[in-house]
Amino acid sequence: MRYIYSILIFLLMLCACNKDASEIGSLLNGIEAYIEEYPEEALKVLESVNREELTTRKLKAKHALLYSMALDKNYIDVTTDSIIAPAVNYYKYRGTDEERFKSLYYAGRVYQNAGNVEAAMEKFVEAEHHMSNQIDKTIVARLFKAKMVAYQDIFDYKSAITQAHKAAEYYLSARDSVKYLSAINSIVILYGQLDDKESERKYLDLLSSNRYLMNDSQLNTYYAVLLNSSLRDSQEIVSGILSEYLSTITDASIIKWLSIANAYIVLENYPAAINALDNYRLYGGIKDPAYNWISASIYENLGEYEKALNFYKSYLKETDEADMSIFESDTKFIEERFVADLKSVRQSLYLIIISLSLIIIALLLVIIYQRMKKVKEENRIQKIRFDEERKVIVGAKEQVEAQYVLLKEEKEETERMFTSLKAEIEQLKKIRKDKSIDKDILASVEQRLNVLNMFILAELSDSFEKIAYNELGKLMENREEFLESTRRTFMISHPKFMAYLRKQNLTEWEIGCCCLYCIGFNGAEISEYLNRKAIYNINSTIRQKLNIPKGGTQIDVFLTQKMKEFRP
């Protein structure tokens, strides 16, 4: 702490010396580093700066921003934008996002202090537009709190709650528990204004569980809100909360005496309620219209109807004046703008020009309305066209995707077939070398080997494709002979596999069908080739004998896997 003070004193001493622009810049940067924690000392240093040494717009903007920050943090309300204006004008197109954000926020605070809600909200909204992750979360939270207050001032409690929630969120992100709980207190009060008891109770419970983190001011607000919330409960509950409130908060100057008075009314202790009002006048002054309402209620219950009536009249007068003040505040800017527009108008043509202005405005409104209507219709037509084009594109996309899937499946099937062909060729080559095999079988083997080689070549060169299919056609022309030839070849090339099939009690013809599956035929192709329409029944019989469950593995996949298992 002493070290920090030493730095600030050193900065203050520097202000007394003549400095160039770089030294002034360093000085302002030094102030900026400590302004949040030591606003009073920072304000003294900034006030001691010789304004003539701020020789550039950048330095003037920096000083204006820091000075506005120091004033705000020292609770010194400024109602003119002359101090912050150099910062707003400079950082509009220069500087960092944080500098731009802060200049707009503090400009809004100036207007808020001056009671110009519209101008304040304009700056707040503009500042929010320049938010970024690089900006300190605490200053962002302050922005939303300021917006909350602005909405409170015009009794828009729903919008105020939205802003209060945002403020609480950013205070929580900044790990500022004190300010976070303060925002939650505001949320409770706002829900109370809306008579949303469920939400009010929810956030009261949140405050209750975090009371140990509260300072005296926050505890005071918490108990006041809790007390107000309990007024519809039993006298026992009200009495308990009231007792806890008065025993916890010992500083009478900060106690919410109007809330205390209301509680005593519920408890029917009217002398204590009057005493609470006396304390309110002593410590707070007669400012809140609720004072008159509570006073009227007390004296009405005491039977002093004349006093009660006078307090009711005072309450109505004050609330009417407050409503009118809000109305004037909302309409003031319109009036001022209207007067400014008429300054250049000659007095003699006043009424004529006003009439013409109104007519022009009306015409402009009609034109704008017609234009908006036309644009809306054009947008509707464009949307319809877009939806139609989108449907076409989606349809085309789905078609391409389907074709891609089909081609992929065909490619995979071709790859599987050629893998099988290559394996078959290798097996047939081995058989061909076996001199003990019957010559007729070897002739069939040789014939099949030639055809299979042609298909391999056809894969490598399109010129062999037609020849390969012609040779295959000749080989397959005699269906029964081809089936028998295939079966004999499999007996030589895959003896264990064929023995397995016979063991399952398959007929020779069914075994032949299995062999056709193994060389790449599918069910439909086998049915067409063998001219058998009842292939489903054949497949069912094969499935049953091979113990392939219905809806399980496909026959060709099952047979291919089995053939690999029994491969010699």
Index terms:
mainly alpha, 568 residues
What report would you give on this structure?
The chain has 568 residues and is an all-alpha fold. Among the domains are: 215-271, no CATH class; 286-339; 400-565, no CATH class. The protein is 77% helix and 0% strand. It is built from 26 helices and no strands. The protein has helices at residues 2-15, 21-34, 39-48, 57-73, 85-91, 97-113, 117-129, 137-153, 157-173, 177-193, 197-209, 216-229, 235-248, 257-266, 270-283, 290-301, 305-341, 350-432, 439-460, 465-476, 479-493, 495-503, 508-518, 523-530, 535-545, 555-565. α8 runs antiparallel to α9 (157-173), α9 (157-173) packs antiparallel against α10 (177-193) and α14 packs antiparallel against α15. The longest helix has 83 residues, at 350-432. It is elongated, with a radius of gyration of 46 Å. Mean pLDDT is 77; it is low at 1-18 and 327-345.
What layout of secondary structure does this protein have?
Layout: H1 2-15, H2 21-34, H3 39-48, H4 57-73, H5 85-91, H6 97-113, H7 117-129, H8 137-153, H9 157-173, H10 177-193, H11 197-209, H12 216-229, H13 235-248, H14 257-266, H15 270-283, H16 290-301, H17 305-341, H18 350-432, H19 439-460, H20 465-476, H21 479-493, H22 495-503, H23 508-518, H24 523-530, H25 535-545, H26 555-565
Helix pairs in contact: 1-2, 1-3, 2-3, 2-4, 3-4, 4-5, 4-6, 5-6, 6-7, 6-8, 7-8, 8-9, 9-10, 10-11, 10-12, 11-12, 12-13, 12-14, 13-14, 14-15, 14-16, 15-16, 16-17, 18-19, 19-20, 21-22, 21-23
